Amino acid sequence: MASTTAARESVPKGSDARGSGPRGSGRGPGPRGRRRRLLFGVAGGVAILVGWQLLSVVVNPAILASPVQTAIALGELASGSTLWIQVLITLRRLVIGLAVGAAAGATLGVVAGLEPRLRSFFEPFRWVGMTIPAVVIAVLAMLWFGLGDFTVMFIVALIVLPTMYVNTMAGVLAIDQKLVEMGHVYRFPRRLLLTEIYLPGVASPALAGLTLATGIGVRAVVLAEVLAAMSGVGHAFSRAMSYLETPKLYAWVVVLLALMAVIEFGFLRPVKRRALRWRKATE
Amino acid sequence: MITFAAVSKWFDSLQVLREISFQVAQGEIVSIVGPSGVGKTTILRLIAGLIQPDEGRVEVVDAVQGYVFQEPRLLPWRTALDNVAAPLRAQGCSKRQARSLAADWLARVELAGFEHYHPAELSGGMAQRVSIARAFAVQPRILLMDEPFSNMDVELKASLLVLLQRLIRQLGTTVVYVTHELLEALQLADRLLELTPERDLREVELSDRAAVARAWLAKIQPLL
Fold first, then answer.
1. Do the chains contact at B75 and A2, CB–CB below 8 Å?
2. A185 — contact with chain B (CB < 8 Å)?
3. ∠ CA(A193), CA(A195), CA(A200), 5° rounding?
4. What value, to the nearest 5°, has the Cα angle with vertex A121 and ends A116 and A123?
5. Is the pLDDT reported for residue A14 higher than 50?
6. What is the CATH number of the domain that holds A249?
7. Are A46 and A164 contained in the same domain?
8. Cβ–Cβ < 8 Å for B164, B176
9. A110 neighbors A153 (Cβ within 8 angstroms)
């Protein structure tokens, strides 16, 4: 793509600079501003570590392990197979629960966005789903299905579903009807209406919903594993607490944060960047 | 090509069109003028089949239509090239073929080099030219235009009108062009229909265009 400056120079002859030139892209923060912002971000991270270290000096070590103790515990966990096995178990539950919950929420959201009667019908379900505390869902699921894999995934899916539903529905409702009309004038077949107008229109709020749902999903899977499973990171965390293995407990917290970071930076952000390239281009 | 027989249309309790009748023959360039709110856009929407008449009959030969809306109505997430290519794909062109035709049309509206720009990166005038390219690219037998230059300054409008005139002549398309500016209509049209504030439709004799323009200027002079 030609740069905006180049484009400005190549505005066709005879066209009016007031009305015909391309719009200048809005100025972003620039490399210096970006570097400064990054620096402040790193400073925030360092502040957490320093604060943690200082607190660990004054607080009983049975309650708060220091960053160094946590790092050592993490190293021990990582040297064996336990950490990786537990992470894989949790990741599998998270991915399946999230996929099922998000897919169901997105599908229902699209349907409800297109059909007002179904939207009214789903409204009480949405209200219950978004109002009921996650821990209540977890306890009820344990009562219905007992402990284990399925229960954890069920809890994750059920907690994630309403968020995805609401975001997708909002996206469908916000689709520009003038674009749909344009599609009808040019006789877009259903497939083209979907790929050119509806899906790109819904992508932005749906992806925002997915980001939100993933955060909720991670919290849900840990909660569910603490309460309703005999394996996984949540269970390991809960066991470390029972045995008062404080450094290990904090090591599992770090593992969870790392897991979330991998999901966010390795999956969600690239997907979002790709789907919303057009926005980036116009920023 | 297009027949309106005693067509009436209401929006809720407001009657927008009252027993309107007219015909447009193949290859004619018909301009409909009138003040805002007398139902000009409604006539275009009826021709495009986006709405149905409440009374009377609208007959339109089943043919490919192009529509240039008042605002460009481009897909914000697609480039200029893909915006022009989309209706071609709806007609069954392959993606590659559609893009190649779209690039030709962008060049014809003097937008070569801007194929990969997104609508938000283009000025209003450029975006409207993309919309014109999109309308012509489908090789329409009927072209509907709804005050496409209403938000533009005089110079830009004049240059786009010249471009439009050239393209219409090249294609021999039937055109229904709606505007509230008589001089614009006079520049393009073979026939001129006027929708009055009383919602009557009357044909304006165009044998002496200068006289029509003078009469119109005399009418608006007290306002100047």
1. no
2. yes
3. 105
4. 95
5. no
6. 1.10.3720.10
7. no
8. no
9. no
Contact check, Cβ <8 Å, B159/A14: yes
Q: Helices (DSSP H) in A229-276: which residue ranges?
A: 233-242, 246-263, 269-275
Residue A147 placed within a domain: yes
How many CB pairs below 8 A link A and B?
99
Asked if A178 and B69 touch (Cβ cutoff 8 Å), the reply is: yes
- How near does any CA of chain B get to the CA of A222, in Å? 38
With a pLDDT cut of 70, the percent of chain B lying above it is 98
**Three-class SS state of B6:** strand
The H-assigned helical ranges of B94-175 are 95-108, 124-137, 154-171
Do residues A28 and A100 share a domain?
A: no
For residue B28, what are the contacts with CB-CB under 8 A and spacing of at least 6?
B1, B174, B175, B190, B191
Tell me which residue in B113, B138, B153 faces A19 most closely, judged by beta carbons.
B153
Please indicate if any CB of chain A lies within 8 Å of the CB of B154.
no
Residues A144 and A95 both lie in one domain: yes
The answer as to whether A17 is a domain residue is: no
Contact (CB<8Å) A282/B50: no
Same domain flag for A152 and A178:
yes
In a domain, A275, yes or no: yes
Q: What does the pLDDT look like over A104-151, one tens digit per residue?
A: 999 999 899 989 999 999 999 999 999 999 899 999 999 999 988 899
Whole-structure pTM value: 0.74
Are A215 and A236 in the same domain?
A: yes
- Return the SS3 of A28: coil
Alpha-carbon span A219 to B212, nearest angstrom: 74
CB contact under 8 A, A196 and B122: no
pLDDT tens digits, B53-87: 999 999 998 888 999 999 999 999 999 999 999 99
Rounded Cα gap, residues A172 and A119, in angstroms: 12
Same domain membership, residue A148 and residue A238: yes
Domain that holds residue A49: 23-58
Domain count, chain A: 2
Q: How far apart are CA B219 and CA B224, in angstroms?
A: 10
A26 touches chain B (CB under 8 A): no
Distance CA A53, CA A68 (A): 8
